[in-house]
Amino acid sequence: MSTSNNVKKYPGFNFWTVCFFAFLYLPILVVILYSFNSSKLVSVWGGFSLKWYVNALNNNNLLDAVQVSLTVAIIATVISTTVALLAAMVLVRGKGVRFRKTSETIVSLPLLLPEVVVAVAILIFFSNLGIGNGMLKLIIAHSTFCIPFAFLPIRARLQGMNMHVEEASEDLYANKWTTFKRITFPLILPGVSSGAMLAFVISMDDFITSSMLNSGGSTTLPVYIFSLIRQGVTPELNAISTLIIGVSLFLAGGAFLLQRQR
Amino acid sequence: MKKLSFNLWGLLPVHLIMLFGLIIPIGIVISVSFATKGAYGGFDYVFTLKAYQQILYNEGWTGGLEFNPQYLHIIGRTLLLSVITTMICLLISFPVAYYIAQQKASRKALLIYLVTLPFWVSMIVRVYSWLIILGNEGVIEKILRFTGLTDNIDSLLYNNGAMLLGMVYSYVPLMILPIFASIEKLDGNLIEASHDLYGSRLTTLKRVIIPLAKPGMVAGSILVFVPCLGSVLEPVLLGGGKNMMMGNLITSQFGGARNWPFGSAIALVLMSLVVIALVIHGLRATDKDARQEAL
């Protein structure tokens, strides 16, 4: 059947889609391309060079920021995924849970409120309490807003799971913990890992909350990049951005493969 | 008995974290917005409505109040830019979502993956990329100069248009996913039936496809509109200092300007706008459920 006869096809929609994907990806490609520019001026092409990558990898401030971001993201991922897994087990599997709807709303609160408001709120709260430790503040804040991102994939996986295997396990005299460890957890593992991955990426990517809570020694990667952008566009900044794009795409590829396994 | 206790302790951690990481802090913001500004930043718990009054009025030298619309302008700009961003995203997304939904399963999965892929890339890097493109001596300026179209270019950055572009770019995938989901569920026979009844492509689009895709369009609009209202990065990096949105106004009150009660008051205005948007959305949803039950 030719396109013009297929009534479900609209002329121009495929061209529009091509333009859309160009719009989505060209800016990212521009950053990558410019990072290999040997000229110090961003606007002049001076030939291919990797020197900005060498500069970036020797930049101690950058490495410190990466370390802060990774530490916060890993701890926040572990906390939020564990808490989300517990909550999902109760909210999906538990019988006779009181205030189930309220609890579900509370879990997804960080998605409903604007991040800048929550960031300001946490800033005031911590300064009221007199918590001075920058890392601790970041970890608490990140764990909080990562919970719904970890929760949603886990819940989806639990809801899609066949309950009979769990019942069979209990019929065979396995206790609740053994059933969870040997049956439920392995089956929902893809959901748990995509939840954890999402939480990790959200934490690594966070700018608003981290910049509000920023203090010496707790500058995260996005906050550091922001300070660089403020000083102007430089080739080194492009190299750093390209490294980040590379790592993100690597993680995204991993997540894609994980999903395929289902 | 044991089951009951797991129901309790399993939910306890999430409730504790949300209580201390979110609910109590929001409560404090509400109380700070009614507090008095401290002399050296911070605040004292003395009740006053000054922070809210400051949104509308300047206090003159004599203590009299003058109407000052500068903050209303910021609130208005935030609302307007968010509405326009949402509409542009709708226009861009509908054909894309429709096209993707018509593809074979494997191609469909790949295209949807490509739509979501930018979310993995750091937000700040994506916004930054537009600085290279729009900035002085940036990509667009060079293309224009190279092709000889024009030599005289006013800066493309630091205006409402650049902010709009940045927000559309950041949030448009959020619009595509729900529209795609509702078009994919749509029964293709309905489109054919419409054509059998001599409906043109345009009529079919208007009378069949768009009405059936509406739930997705509404959901996508909420997903785009709400984060737009709270944007911070796009206005700071692409809008410049003059074109503030509420997000910057709030953060600036906790940085250099240091008026915490005023910042809290603006934060509450922003939160109310978001809550209003969500409630309207919720009401529409329950309205629809009620209608469906009635049928």
Model description:
The complex is a heterodimer of chains A (262) and B (295). Chain A is an all-alpha fold. Chain A contains eleven helices and no strands. Chain A starts with 12 loop residues before the first helix and ends with a helix. Helices cover 74% and strands 3% of the residues of chain B. Chain B is built from twelve helices and four strands. Chain B has helices at 2-33, 50-56, 70-101, 105-116, 123-134, 139-146, 160-185, 188-196, 201-229, 233-239, 246-254, 260-294; strands at 36-37, 43-44, 57-59, 65-67. In chain B, helix 7 crosses helix 9. The longest helix of chain B is centred in the last third of the chain and has 35 residues, at 260-294. Chains A and B meet through helix 1, helix 3, helix 4, helix 5 and helix 6 of A and helix 1, helix 3, helix 4, helix 5 and helix 7 of B.
Query: Overall mean pLDDT score of chain B?
Result: 85
The end-to-end span of chain B amounts to 43 Å
N-C termini distance of chain A: 34 Å
CATH class of the largest domain in chain B: Mainly Alpha
Number of strands of chain B: 4
| Quaternary status | heterodimer
Query: Strand sequence of the main sheet of chain B, in spatial order?
Result: 1-2
Number of domains of chain B: 2
Largest sheet entry of chain A = none
What is the succession of H and E elements of chain A?
HHHHHHHHHHH
CATH-assigned fold name of the largest domain in chain B = MetI-like fold
The whole-angstrom Rg of chain B is 24 Å
Q: How many H/I helices of chain A?
A: 11
Q: By CATH's scheme, which homologous superfamily of the largest domain in chain A applies?
A: MetI-like
Strand content of chain A is under 5%
Per the CATH scheme, the topology name of the largest domain in chain A is MetI-like fold
Largest inter-chain contact set: A-B, 88 and 85 residues
Per CATH, the class of the largest domain in chain A reads Mainly Alpha
CATH H-level homologous superfamily name of the largest domain in chain B? MetI-like
Q: Give the uncertain stretches of chain A in residue-range form.
A: none
Looking at the structure, what is the overall shape of chain B? globular
